[in-house]
Amino acid sequence: MPPIRVLHIITRLIVGGAQENTLFTAELLDASRYQVDLISGSQTGSEGSLVEEARSKGIPLTIVPHLVRQISPLHDLLALLKLTQIIRRGQYTIVHTHSSKAGILGRLAARLARTPIIVHTVHGWSFHDYMSPLTRKIYIGLEQRMAKLSDALIVVAEQDIAKGLAAGIGQPNQYHLIRSSIPLEDFDPAKYSRQEVRQELGLPTDAPVIGNVGRFSPQKNPLVWAQVAGLIGRALPQARFLLVGDGPLRHELQENLAQEGIAERTVLTGLRRDVPRLLAAMDIFLLTSLWEGLPRVIPQAMAMRLPIVAARVDGIAEAVQNGVTGYLFDPDDTNGMAQACVTLINDLAMRKAMGARGRELALKNYDLRHMLTQIDSLYQHLLEKNRR
Question: Does the pTM exceed 0.85?
């Protein structure tokens, strides 16, 4: 039997968890069983690009410029027509979409092209509590309609199943929990020299370092991160801060760090792909996101033995065991998050215990090989069901 032809579609190949997860799937699925192609829009921006990385991995990649993140009737129509043409020409058996815009246009195109199997991964729902009620209603309505075109909905957190069903999206038997996972062999603290990385970054080798890796975007809430860091900095004058990433809020973030009086104690590395090394320089991982699916950086930090202090939202609340591997707070509880970081800095034994337990859970729950096995099993189940 020739390999099954599979097409993955994602809106943007920026540096982000959903994009990295998609590249791992496209690259590492068994090539004797699947021939996997990838489509993306051309937009990247300050969050960086994974386009060249995808090509260097040998993933067949097609860029569709009209596939854009923002709503644009003309671009959306042209993207739909182009996607339908590509899917028909490629005669794909499975079309697997990611992200909201690609999830809508990709599933419509797959249905128009009469693709036998349509799968969508929810990397966090497109609707959330921080948009207007009308916009939220529109997004929910679109997701409801697209679910009817889907043979399977993959979610990366159990909470997304509950959210989807509560919003009337799909049926329970459509949902499949497949957690976004990581190459654990890369996230091994024994492989990296904490002192060497700190010297490279200009951080004191004996200072407590609170850090984060992620996009500087409204979802990640970096301006509140700066507020929490300011509270920590005033309580612990020796503390330093490490921010890895970039994004549209970089300028405002830098202004806030200055207003908090910690700009000179903060290292902003910009976009980096050596995330495990940079995590090795940290003592605590602080995440202030407003909404999430399952941010891959949480299991990454846990695998590197870092205790987590984070907002209690969506998949974060499933990944972090409150009081065991870290502490969880409401997104607006800046004082609580800051005090938790101060407590952890002052208690080395607690930091080590939480970090050790976090690594145990990361090794158990977030192995990339297990994720690929689950995707393969789902594909095979859908193929068998389609043959009946």
Answer: yes
